[in-house]
């Protein structure tokens, strides 16, 4: 019987419990409440902003003195989502294994080869191998018996109310069961987050994806629009000015200004007046709080509708430019053809007069 001590460095929405249950379904495990009793530390690090930053912060929270197995949790709908190997970000020598897993608030741990591979890697570690003699567990330990791999009910309920926050560095796909319009949409967006949104930017993206088929791309060149999120942490004017400097040029920008407050009726001034860049096609204000992620209020719903309309308008403009380019090309071909024809006529007339 092997003993492990759990460290959770962020909100996993119960996915760490599900992973432990999956491990327990294949191996007899005992979770202990003190570091001294444990054989190994099982640490869970959900990615909420950038992998490097979050892993570094997680390593600072993990106590020393025992070997560490670090599970890095990436939020995504896509079971085939590719993530870089997080072990390259680990600088501590006592981390004996680093694995990456995929999860989502509605599905828990995704059913995918990556998660199965990670579970096998953990089980294959010598520290997790069963021991020949298993003394009775002390009263203050919590024994893990084999369990099904469904996420805890309370974790699913929490996920429905409070989706996690993180910057997806890959492609985010909406749920497969969702029916979307078949028409072409301006749906490829590149995300820029200029501060700590406490996950509220991810929830807004989920709300948009529930109403429109959207795809988050990892390069600016692939995108149709930049979706930028600017949380206000000091002065709105200063924070927005700094945020605009972080947003790359070359694509139209939709700027979402996030105002932190408990009060869903909180009145904020229109941040649009503070925006000086001409490529920002829309600026909206949203309210959020760390315990609620977003405030259920008319302002939030209005912001969602404005963004969707801006995406549609962007599509219309895109189609208009395509038609205009086609017309200009046709005019150019006609102009060149007419020029060749008139030049031929002049040369012919000149030769005719010369021969006479």
TrEMBL record:
It comes from Oncorhynchus mykiss (Rainbow trout). It comes from the Eukaryota. PANTHER family: SI:CH211-245H14.1-RELATED. This is Uncharacterized protein. The lineage of its organism: Eukaryota, Metazoa, Chordata, Craniata, Vertebrata. Residues 124-182 are annotated as: Disordered.
């Amino acid at each position: 019987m092997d003993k492990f001590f759990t460290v959770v460095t962020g909100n996993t929405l119960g996915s760490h419990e599900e992973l432990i249950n999956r491990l327990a379904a294949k191996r007899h495990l005992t979770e202990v409440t003190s570091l001294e009793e444990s054989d190994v530390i099982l640490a869970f690090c959900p990615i909420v902003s950038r992998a490097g930053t979050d892993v570094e912060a997680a390593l600072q929270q993990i106590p020393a003195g025992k070997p560490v197995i670090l599970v890095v949790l990436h939020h995504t709908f896509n079971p085939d989502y590719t993530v870089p190997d997080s072990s390259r970000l680990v600088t501590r020598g006592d981390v004996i294994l680093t694995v990456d897993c995929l999860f989502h608030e509605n599905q828990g741990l995704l059913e995918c080869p990556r998660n199965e591979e990670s579970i096998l890697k953990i089980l294959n570690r010598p520290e997790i191998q069963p021991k020949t003699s298993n003394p009775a567990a002390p009263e203050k330990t919590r024994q893990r018996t084999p369990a099904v791999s469904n996420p805890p009910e309370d974790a699913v309920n929490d996920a429905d109310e409070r989706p996690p926050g993180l910057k997806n560095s890959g492609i985010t796909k909406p749920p497969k069961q969702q029916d979307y319009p078949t028409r072409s949409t301006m749906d490829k967006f590149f995300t820029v987050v200029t501060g700590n949104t406490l996950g509220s930017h991810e929830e807004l993206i989920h709300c948009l994806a529930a109403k429109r088929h959207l795809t988050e791309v990892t390069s600016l060149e692939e995108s149709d629009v930049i979706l930028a999120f600017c949380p206000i942490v000091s002065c709105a004017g200063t924070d927005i000015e700094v945020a605009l400097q972080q947003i790359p040029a070359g694509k139209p920008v939709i700027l979402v200004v996030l105002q932190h407050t408990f009060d869903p009726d909180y009145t904020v001034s229109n941040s649009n007046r503070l925006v000086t860049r001409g490529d920002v096609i829309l600026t909206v204000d949203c309210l959020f709080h760390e315990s609620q992620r977003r405030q259920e209020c008319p302002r939030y719903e209005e912001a969602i509708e404005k963004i969707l309309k801006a995406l549609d308008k962007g599509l219309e403009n895109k189609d208009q430019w395509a038609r205009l380019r086609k017309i200009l090309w046709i005019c150019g071909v006609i102009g060149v053809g007419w020029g060749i024809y008139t030049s031929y006529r002049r040369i012919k007339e000149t030769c005719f007069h010369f021969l006479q």
